[in-house]
Amino acid sequence: MKLKARYTFFTLSILFLVYTGSIYLRPLRAGSMNSSKEAISGRIVWQKYNCQSCHQLYSLGGYLGPDLTNIMSQPGKGEVWVRAMLQVGPKQMPQFHLTEVETEELIAFLKSTDSSGVADPRNFKTSASGMIESNGRN
Amino acid sequence: MEETKIEPGKLFLKTALVMMLSAALFGLLAALTYIYPDFLKESVGFTALRPLHVSSALFWIILGATGCVFSGLNTLTKKSKNNKVALLQWGLWILSISGIFISYFRKDFGGREYWEFNPIWALPIALAWILFLYNFFSRIKKLRKWPVYVWMWLTGIVFFMFIFLENYLWIFPYFRQHFITDMTIQWKVNGSLVGSWNQMLYGTAIFLMDKISGSKKAGQNKIAFAMYFLGLFNLMFNWGHHIYTLPTEKYIRLIGYSVSMTEWIIFLKIIYDWRATVTTIQKHYHYFPYKFIMASDIWVFFHVLQATLISIPAINIYTHGTHFTVAHSMGTTIGINTMILLAVCFEFLKPDTYQGTKSYQFLNWVFWFLQVFLLVFLIALMTAGIKKGLWQLSSNQSSFSDMMQTLYPYFVAFTVTGAGILITLAIFAFHLLQPNSKSKP
């Protein structure tokens, strides 16, 4: 049992490392989807103010506020709306007092998430196997 | 190296219990902001309450798992070796937790979801884990014919180290430059970390079964090893269900879909088989450890169906990003992990609380209240999740704010039952943190 356990443990570990490596190399394979420097800094602003505690990106994050993946292209929302929300701090959301640079970076980040795909679950169709397929941009 | 008298296993378990109380308290305060939007808004606020709750819960599980491994190793090797290294490890944890909590109160964030603290505080945790690795290997090197739980502890400790470091790859611009890859790695990490501490906890549950029944049946049988490898496979590859809607490669979704949480079914079977081997006298003297392990078995049963369903992409798009997912994560954390950890705490910290003792009857009631509160709590979350899921997919969608208003009764229900969970857990924690009155005959 011990020998078999060791053998299985190492085989699985190698498979895991290969799988992990293939994910790490993804930025090299998909260079065209790289974010701008401003958007990369915007992700740090997102973390600095812990926006993820209430908001989601691709349905991942907190549950108190709406998903913001495609907020920039959503009808009735967009850049002006985001700026207003940041200033007002509605309901549980505090006024964060972001600097002008931080605001611009955060908006660049939200524009980049918007261009990365569509998070709305209505964008997917289901197949008989239970798998989902995107209807559009994803 | 000179030995000290402090038992590292007990020290970690007691610290973990304090974290459990912290998690429940901050969870309740965070829940109150759902009902009263202005509650603590100008002071600590939801942005700090949520990480205070989540980090405390993570530390409860991780420190508890560490305490389980130390306590188990002490029993197996019959000696408490490398105490000073273990105490240094504990000291690093205290340093890190203090820094994290202070920074949360000061609204100094900077990390990712579940690990929202400034990455500087991850350094003492990583150092503590290196000491744990050293300590673990120095203790097990002379052990022969490892039972399955030693394999599980080893796997949990090694993979936690690897995945915890992976958790900070985002610091390097190479990984941050590609948003989708960055998100993929973030959720690969979050999924696999759960798998790594589950290895330590399920391993401890099997160790405890052998200890209570006085046999080596659970730790050496083939079905336990099958569960271990299935668990390891899940740890490595079963995180794709977090990111079904993320526009990543199709093979990642397919792997996530094909690897379901099947190890739970085997865990269910192991506990069910073990139950028959425990004698009445063993149940009498290990009353609460036995009871909590059986409770974890019932909660595994509850979650097997739920987890299997939400692993199906066609169902996952309804439940993903809703409180149904919260029900799943809180249900497994409280229903399975916390029940196992409380079983371990009773076995090692309060072996004098057996059937017929003064506190037994009262604690028995508290035990049942905890189970009922948890059930209603999960039902409230699941119902809120289903309602939001239907809203997400409706063609004639109302505003987010209006939808949240309709969930108000469920938020009240999970806040009230959350308070009940806090009270019952606090009673257990105070009992477990008190010194022993007498030793078991």
Describe the structure.
The complex is a heterodimer of chains A (138) and B (441). Chain A is mainly α and 138 residues long. Chain A has a domain at 37-120: Cytochrome Bc1 Complex, Chain D, domain 2 (Orthogonal Bundle). Chain A has 5 helices and 4 strands, in the order αααββααββ. In chain A, strands 1-2 form a two-stranded antiparallel sheet. Chain A has a two-stranded antiparallel ribbon with strand order 3-4. In chain A, β3 (124-126) and β4 form a beta hairpin. The radius of gyration of chain B is 21 Å and the shape is globular. The relative contact order of chain B is 0.10. Chain B contains 18 helices and 2 strands. The two termini of chain B are 33 Å apart. The longest helix of chain B has 35 residues, at 179-213. In chain B, β1 (109-112) and β2 form a beta hairpin. A two-stranded antiparallel sheet of chain B has the order 1-2. Chain B is mainly α. At the A-B interface, α1, α3, β1, β2 and α5 of A face α2, β1, α5, α6 and α7 of B.
The number of strands of chain A is 4
* Rg of chain B, Cα atoms, Å: 21 Å
Which two chains share the most extensive interface?
A-B, 61 and 78 residues
Strand content of chain B: under 5%
What level of helicity do the residues of chain A show? Answer: 40-55%
Distance between the termini of chain A: 46 Å
Descriptive labels:
heterodimer; A: mainly alpha; Cytochrome Bc1 Complex, Chain D, domain 2; two-stranded antiparallel sheet; two-stranded antiparallel ribbon; 48% helix; 7% strand; extended; B: 441 residues; mainly alpha; globular
Layout: helices, strands, pairs:
The complex is a heterodimer of chains A (138) and B (441).
Chain A: H1 2-24, H2 26-29, H3 37-48, E1 56-57, E2 60-61, H4 79-88, H5 100-116, E3 124-126, E4 132-134
Antiparallel strand pairs in A: 1-2, 3-4
Chain B: H1 8-35, H2 45-77, H3 83-105, E1 109-112, E2 115-117, H4 122-140, H5 148-166, H6 173-176, H7 179-213, H8 217-220, H9 222-237, H10 250-258, H11 263-275, H12 280-285, H13 287-310, H14 313-319, H15 323-349, H16 360-393, H17 400-406, H18 408-433
Antiparallel strand pairs in B: 1-2
Helix pairs in contact in B: 1-2, 1-18, 2-3, 2-4, 2-7, 2-15, 3-4, 4-5, 5-7, 5-9, 7-9, 7-11, 7-15, 9-11, 11-13, 13-15, 15-16, 16-18
